[in-house]
Amino acid sequence: MNDVTNSHVSQLCNERGINASDVFTDDDSIISGDIYRGGIFLGCEFGKAYLYIWAVGLLAAGQSSTMTGTYTGQFVMEGFLHMKWKRWKRVLLTRTIAILPTVSVALMQDVNHVSGMNDFLNALMSMQLPFAMLATYLFTASKTLMGDFVNDRKNNIFMGVVTTFLIGLNLYFVTNFVMENFPMTWLVFVGFGVFLVFYTVVLGFLTLCLLVVLGWHQLTKLPLIGGYLEERYEFKEFEKLVESCETLNEVKMVPQ
């Protein structure tokens, strides 16, 4: 699509019988490429079949990245929050929290603004990612929880550097997205500021929990929040699973 004019693509679309007059105007201006226009361009250039190939490709990309990431974060957060609900209730709550913002954005936008919608959804996922990353780092660094499979010093350092970099990068992109796509009024600044304070407090709490796991046990003596930073895990179900596996192995070893 580099250096391709709207009139050229409009002519291709007319030849293929694809009505794209609302996408490509009949003038000599250069195409402004995005996800939606890219799919239409492929259909006009190579045939209608490529419209469906492009759509299936986008769907597959979304399934492989978004669903894998959100399901992983969901399962991690369920364990982190010690949710004692039935599985279907936990899935209903966590899936609703994860999907509701996405569905709301999709309903508010039309297909012609799919690229802008994609940027908005990326910003939403960027805000959610640190919670899953910190929780995963916290669990894998806990000797109490992981036992012999706990991260060693090199892995902890690597995880710390990568997590800090990605969280900082995500916060930068989210802030940049808000500055570019929202009007700079006092209401926006106040709303974004309140949200940023709440967001930072939650991330700060998770960070303190992580530091305790990494050996900074003196943080548990902090007033008001110190007691909430202690590691509290229950292994009843895990111990039952281990006992069942050991029993099964013993049965297999008994000569018949």
TrEMBL record:
GO terms for molecular function: cadmium ion transmembrane transporter activity; iron ion transmembrane transporter activity; manganese ion transmembrane transporter activity. The chain crosses the membrane at residues 51-71, 92-108, 120-145, 157-174, 186-214. It is found in: Membrane. The gene is Slc11a2_0. Belongs to the NRAMP family. The keyword Lipid biosynthesis does not apply. It is a multi-pass membrane protein. The keyword Transport applies. Keywords: Membrane, Transmembrane, Transmembrane helix, Transport. GO terms for cellular component: endosome membrane; plasma membrane. InterPro entries: NRAMP_fam (IPR001046). This is Natural resistance-associated macrophage protein 2. Its main location: membrane. It holds the Pfam family Nramp.
